[in-house]
């Protein structure tokens, strides 16, 4: 069954391991007959700072409008980025701050602590690279970046399930290990998972 997939590359440089992982996922998904759009955030012209919070409307740049429209029409969202300082790069966080706005990704209910999840009906795959060994990131740091992306961003907006693949440590990885990660991204793309 063909799926509509949006891939967001959250690394500022397409010429990176994250860029290669996103490309490998994209090519495999296309070869399997899925509809795929890849957006490299580092190549999109937008202000990553939400200048006035929600007090004042900050018009979206055309690139952000295009991505929001693509996400609104997709079934599966794929995020590919490095884990820096325990979490996502500022570029990707800035994207969420600017694009996942009230009325677009969620809506607070009047006189209530509850909200509506406006992006429900979509699933997500997060592919992230780390220099920290995955076991250390899990048991010592307690996966702060994984918790943020899964619980306080994607699930908050209704995107679930969220599956996370963490590849690391990158710094000391052999070429064979990097190729194994690329092949894993390829398998995920082929399966649209």
Supply the CATH architecture: 3-Layer(aba) Sandwich
How far apart are the termini?
12 Å
CATH superfamily name? Flavodoxin domain
CATH fold node name? Rossmann fold
- How large is the share of residues in beta strands? 15-25%
Oligomerization status of the protein chains:
single chain
Which CATH class? Alpha Beta
Number of helices: 6
- Helical content (DSSP H or I, runs of 4+): 25-40%
Low-confidence stretches: none
Report on the biggest sheet: 5 strands, parallel
Strand order of the largest sheet: 2-1-3-6-7
Q: Overall 3D geometry? A: globular
Q: Mean pLDDT, nearest integer? A: 97
The run of helices and strands is EHEHEHEEEHHEH
Describe the protein.
With 193 residues, the protein is α/β, with parallel strands linked by helices. It has a single domain, classed as Rossmann fold, CATH 3.40.50.360. It contains six helices and seven strands; from the N terminus they run E-H-E-H-E-H-E-E-E-H-H-E-H. The protein has helices at residues 17-31, 62-72, 90-99, 134-139, 144-155, 175-191; strands spanning 4-9, 35-40, 76-82, 106-108, 115-117, 123-129, 162-167. A five-stranded parallel β-sheet has the order 2-1-3-6-7, sandwiched between helices. The chain has a two-stranded antiparallel sheet with strand order 4-5. The radius of gyration is 17 Å and the shape is globular. The two termini are 12 Å apart. The mean pLDDT is 97.
